[in-house]
Amino acid sequence: MNAQLIPDKTLQELYGDSSDLQSMRDRFISLEKTHLALFRDAESPMFFSVPGRTELGGNHTDHNHGKVLAASVDLDTIGAVSASSSTEAVLISEGYPEVRVDVSDTQQREEEQGTTEALVRGIARFFQDRGIPVKGFLANTSSRVLKGSGLSSSAAVEIMIGSIFNELYAEGSLEPVELAKAGQFAENRYFGKPSGLMDQIACACGGAACIDFQDPEHPVIEKLEADFASMGYALCVVDTGGNHADLTDAYASIPGEMKGSAQLFGKDHLRQLDEQFVLSQAQTIRKHCGDRAFLRCLHFFQDTKRASQKAEALSTHDIGSYLELVRQSGRSSILQLQNIYPPHLPEEQGISA
Questions:
Q1: Burial level of 232, CB count in 10 A (0-12/13-18/19+)?
Q2: Please, are residues 123 and 185 in contact by the beta-carbon 8 Å criterion?
Q3: Judging by beta carbons within 10 Å of its beta carbon (0-12, 13-18, 19+), is residue 38 exposed, middle or buried?
Q4: % of the chain exceeding 90 in pLDDT
Q5: pLDDT in tens, 210-258
Q6: pLDDT at 194
Q7: pTM of the shown model
Q8: How far apart are CA 335 and CA 331, in angstroms?
């Protein structure tokens, strides 16, 4: 498709009526020119857009089968993609090193952990495990999803890769939730980060949704309107000047401590217990898993409830109640979840400050 011919209606659906549609179209035109310069023998490219996401409720509850409230944003990663006759996937992202992966080899590689190569290889394996043979592709991308901004640039990349395989080799047969699972599979098994499924679903499905992960194989997704502008508010991203050091271990300790507490009572995750039982077993959890683990358990139950309450407040345009729940969640994240700053860098507390 010629980028000049992208309809206004498509751009409005992606970026909203108030956006400068021509400037958005110009991004795709520039991307197409770059694609044809990089891949001189490539066919006319297909275009992809994957949004970043924001968490509106349910902080670190998805990995223990809780509830979350999430929404996509109008900052996205866009891609120009051509099919390849070989098994090599080539991904050239603006500002990043070139990625080349032979997707005929989908064995995990320890030396690739933490890399985009691991994501490509893992997502290819996800498709192959479902009987969908994939070949390579030629892709270049440009992103407005700022790295390290909390808008989940990694999930946007995962959904981009999954969408490319889906359109080129599966006739678009995988639904957004399956693409989200592909991203999570690659991130958990190949990339080496024990993420939940919230980020990927929010990027894959678009819009705002309350998501219940009680059965993560079949998450219940309730779409809702979250028109902050109509209520006199805007959602802003604030640069706190935080350190971008590797936080994987600090991140992993959260699901690890929550699941470890559940395992004391023969369960796999916290959703299999209830808050009153956990309160009654406070001394046992504190003795075997530590005080922080106990506090994180309390946060899980309370923020899971708040996700539903926030969804109800937004659906009735009760911005006052919604904002009070946001404040409660923030206090819980500081005092109970304790993920506002990395524990190994207590002198750096940009969000608190």
A1: exposed
A2: yes
A3: middle
A4: 77
A5: 999 999 999 999 999 888 988 999 888 887 776 656 777 888 899 999 9
A6: 83
A7: 0.86
A8: 6
